[in-house]
Amino acid sequence: WAEKKLRTSPSARTVRELSGYDASPEQLQSLAQKLKEFYDAHPIPPPRDRRSSEIDAEYQAKLDAREAARKALLTEQLGAEGFAAFERGSDPRFQTLQKLARRLDLPTASAAQWLDLQSAAQNQARDVRANAALTDDAKAVALLAIQAEATRTLQTAVGARGWGAYQRNCA
């Protein structure tokens, strides 16, 4: 009964849907069990006001603490490199990039590189948007520069053959 419960749990689904994360069936089962135990012990806290779309600071702090505990568990279980691969494998953007890499007969590492480039550009853009010291015009110029640099870098990384497919599927 416990085996069936684990196999049908959301934790097992999460592990089954991983992309680009290589582990033995025993390791995957152990990981699903650890995640299930974590989620059972740390349910998502209910918001104080369910009618409000605003997330209050106390509720956000609880969510952040839960996520930090989840990351610590996974890092302990998988190691730093394994955790990075797990996070990548859970990211739908990586799954799309991995499909593109397969179509272009490129290694999975290419998809990981492209995801890193995308993530870096998105982080830079988020930082620019959050910078209260910049005027709206300065933000617009900085965002255009980030977009141009990301496009140039990704075009180089994907290659001429893959750029059109990248734009259709990943942009």
Mean pLDDT: 86
Percent in helix: over 70%
Query: What is the strand tally?
Result: 0
Give the class from helix and strand content and strand pairing.
mainly alpha
Distance between the termini: 44 Å
Count of helical regions = 7
Strand content: under 5%
Biggest beta sheet summary: none
Order of helices and strands: HHHHHHH
Oligomer: single chain
Radius of gyration: 20 Å
Shape: flat
Low-confidence stretches: none
What's the topology here?
Blueprint: H1 2-7, H2 10-16, H3 25-41, H4 57-90, H5 92-103, H6 108-130, H7 136-169
Structure description:
There is one protein chain. The protein contains 7 helices and no strands. α2 packs antiparallel against α3 and α5 packs across α6. The protein is mainly α and 171 residues long. The mean pLDDT is 86. Helices cover 78% and strands 0% of the residues. The protein starts with a helix and ends with a helix.
Structure described in brief:
With 171 residues, this protein is mainly α. 78% of the residues lie in helices and 0% in strands.
